[in-house]
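During the reporting period the student researcher (J.K.) took over the structure-prediction task from the postdoctoral fellow and processed the backlog of single-chain submissions. One of the processed entries is reproduced below for the supervisory committee.
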Amino acid sequence: MEKGDDRKAARSTLKNMKNRTTAHNKLAAETAEAMELAFGDHDTPAADILVIWDNYFEGLESHNQDILDLRFELKQSIDREVCAAIFAAAE
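J.K. obtained the following C-alpha cells:
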C-alpha cells in the first residue's frame, strides 16, 4: 500500500482494532479470575455469578460491535486490489 492518507487511516484503524482486542482480552482474564473466585467459594450466591457473566457478555457484545464497525472503517481505506492481495497472502 502506497504512503498517503489511506495508508494512515488503515494503520490507525488497525491500531484501534488491536487496542480494542487488548481491552477485551483483559476483560476476559478478569472475568475468568472472578469466576474462579466465585466458584471456589461455595457460598457465592448464583445471582453474583450471573452478574459476572452479564458483565462479560455485555463487554463481549460491545467488543464484537466495535470490531465490526472498525472492519467497515478499514474497508473504506483499502481498495479492492490491496484487499485481494492481503487476503491472498493469508491463504
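The committee noted the following: The mean pLDDT is 91.
J.K. will present the remaining backlog at the next meeting.
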